């Protein structure tokens, strides 16, 4: 629901030419529990007593899903606020937060309200929640390796998972986050995404990490309040990264009670940060959390093996894991399982009774997805291309169209093959075999995205 509402908001923002983007989130069970605990304490303090039953809890249960509109320029605040008041039945005016706002009374305002963090990059965001996970039974060796590292006592604090594009790094990171959410070991995450306004900004990382620790690390919020108050600077976003990390993470974490369990922080797709120099600086600063006496931190970073990241890693004690080199054979068998599962689902959805794809077609598609490199993105894109979930699809024709192109013999041509097949067929009507499938509006939008 939250995702759908955010999409509607984004459409209306575009129609009104308001330069802003819409974010959505769904509250986690742990966050709901902590909110109710705080509200019950407030009830007791006000003389109303503890909750008497489920109806009392329902009265206090709100904010399960949220929509936030982030406006680029102050002059557009009024237009965005008007959009909200005109579009929703509301009981109060929209909250407007700026980077220069004064900190509220700590007795009334949770510390999280003082942090202008990037919701879409959080481990509990709607965007991360709806991202694909590893298919059951796949990436099992890599996942076990990571779990062993997390729970070890003597291995490096930092694990760097690197490999080329399309090899499953982010999907693995999302799956590990899910695994540890169930065990209570996930502390926080920041998931970069190239081209996403605000999300690929390194300066958002400390604020976003700190805002999540409020819900995952006991007593962190009260320590954070003290640290923020002691800094005497309401505009913490303008500080140097080293100062931010000290105020938001190092100082408050050093003053909490001892936490016995290991906690993991995930930084995914570091190479997609707009400023890699600042991103690698944050990585080095986060690495200092290994010296905490109150909490054992593990830091998991995924990225492509690019020069700035590798140079920064060479300066840090870390464990390195190459998905392509260390788990290539496992990846090939996993991709075979993904294709089998995907084609079986398509046959079921479309009511295809006969054998499809043929044995020859299937093995040719499998070969292209795994040779010269096993690419999860190849398999995933192929399946989405063949069948997009609509009943009007023509999976047989689309699979034949994909196979009609010659196979490349290098990693680069393997990637090119994916995009070429998609773009050559993007305007093709599979029923008639003729162009004209896209509407003029869709063509204009595509041209806007791709550029001249």
UniProtKB/TrEMBL annotation:
Signal sequence coordinates = none
Q: Per its UniProt entry, which superkingdom is the organism in?
A: Eukaryota
Keywords, A to Z, come to: Repeat
Nephrocystin 3-like N-terminal domain residues are: 142-304
Keyword Repeat included in the entry's annotation? yes
State what protein this is by name.
Vegetative incompatibility het-e-1
Query: Which organism is this entry from?
Result: Fusarium pseudocircinatum
């Amino acid at each position: 629901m939250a995702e759908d509402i955010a999409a509607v908001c984004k459409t209306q923002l575009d129609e009104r030419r308001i330069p802003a983007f819409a974010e959505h989130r769904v509250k986690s069970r742990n966050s709901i529990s902590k909110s109710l605990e705080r509200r019950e304490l407030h009830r007791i303090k006000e003389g109303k007593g503890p909750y008497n039953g489920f109806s009392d809890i329902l009265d206090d249960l709100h904010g399960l899903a949220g929509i936030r509109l982030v406006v680029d320029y102050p002059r557009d605040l009024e237009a965005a606020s008007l959009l909200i008041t005109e579009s929703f039945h509301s009981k109060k005016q929209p909250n407007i937060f700026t980077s220069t706002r004064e900190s509220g009374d700590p007795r009334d305002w949770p510390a999280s309200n003082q942090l202008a963090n990037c919701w879409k990059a959080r481990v509990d965001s709607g965007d991360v929640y709806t991202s694909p996970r590893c298919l059951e039974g796949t990436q099992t060796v890599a996942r076990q390796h990571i779990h062993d590292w997390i729970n070890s006592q003597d291995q490096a604090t930092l694990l760097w998972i690197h490999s080329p594009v399309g090899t499953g790094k982010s999907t693995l990171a999302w799956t590990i986050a899910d695994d540890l959410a169930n065990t209570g070991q996930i502390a926080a995450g920041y998931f970069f995404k190239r081209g996403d306004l605000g999300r690929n900004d390194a300066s958002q990382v400390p604020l976003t990490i700190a805002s999540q620790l409020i819900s995952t690390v006991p007593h962190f919020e009260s320590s954070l309040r003290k640290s923020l108050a002691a800094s005497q600077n309401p505009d913490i976003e303008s500080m140097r990264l080293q100062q931010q990390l000290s105020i938001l993470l190092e100082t408050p974490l050093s003053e909490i009670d001892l936490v016995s369990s290991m906690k993991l922080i995930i930084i995914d797709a570091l190479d997609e940060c707009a400023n890699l120099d600042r991103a690698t600086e944050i990585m080095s600063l986060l690495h200092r959390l290994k010296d905490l006496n109150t909490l054992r931190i593990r830091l998991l970073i995924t990225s492509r093996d690019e020069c700035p990241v590798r140079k920064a890693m060479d300066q840090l004690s870390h464990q390195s894991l190459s998905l392509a080199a260390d788990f290539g054979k496992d990846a090939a068998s996993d991709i075979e399982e993904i294709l089998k599962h995907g084609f079986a689902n398509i046959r079921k959805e479309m009511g295809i009774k006969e054998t499809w794809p043929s044995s020859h077609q299937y093995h040719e598609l499998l070969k292209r997805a795994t040779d010269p490199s096993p690419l999860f993105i190849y398999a995933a894109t192929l399946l989405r291309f063949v069948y997009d979930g609509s009943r009007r699809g023509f999976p047989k024709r689309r699979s034949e169209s994909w196979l009609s192109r010659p196979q490349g013999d290098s990693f680069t041509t393997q990637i090119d093959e994916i995009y070429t097949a998609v773009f050559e067929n993007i305007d093709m009507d599979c029923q008639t075999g003729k162009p004209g499938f896209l509407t003029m509006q869709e063509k204009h939008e595509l041209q806007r995205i791709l550029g001249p």
